[in-house]
Amino acid sequence: MIQISEDHTYQHLLADADAVPNLPGKLARFLDGRTDGRSADLTPVQLHPGDRILLCSDGLSSYVPQESVRNALDTGITPEEVAEHLVTLALDHGGRDNVTVIVIDVHQ
């Protein structure tokens, strides 16, 4: 599993964020359709048949340990079933945010 982007929350962007009391868990950068310079992170990735891609919000990545996400992605079940399982894991781990999960299998 290779992470190609990161959450743009205050906690992820500040060095020693744990030392800042009451730091909000809000997004520091996001896309909202305005023309004032906000842009998405773009990372070219070479895809091959058999690759599995996970697109998710911080509602998943902030609550479910990476090892659990990796285990879910490595199963032989369909992308739809993996996505449903990951949403359930996020909610079971106390997720208070909305959880967005898309799983894509690459075919030839």
TrEMBL record:
> Which Pfam families does the entry link to?
SpoIIE (PF07228)
Indicate the segments forming the PPM-type phosphatase domain, all copies.
1-106
SUPFAM superfamilies under this entry?
PP2C-like (SSF81606)
Extract the InterPro entries matched here.
Answer: PPM-type-like_dom_sf (IPR036457), PPM-type_phosphatase-like_dom (IPR001932)
PROSITE patterns, sorted: PPM_2
* Name listed for the protein in its UniProt record: PPM-type phosphatase domain-containing protein
What is the native source organism of this protein? Polymorphospora rubra
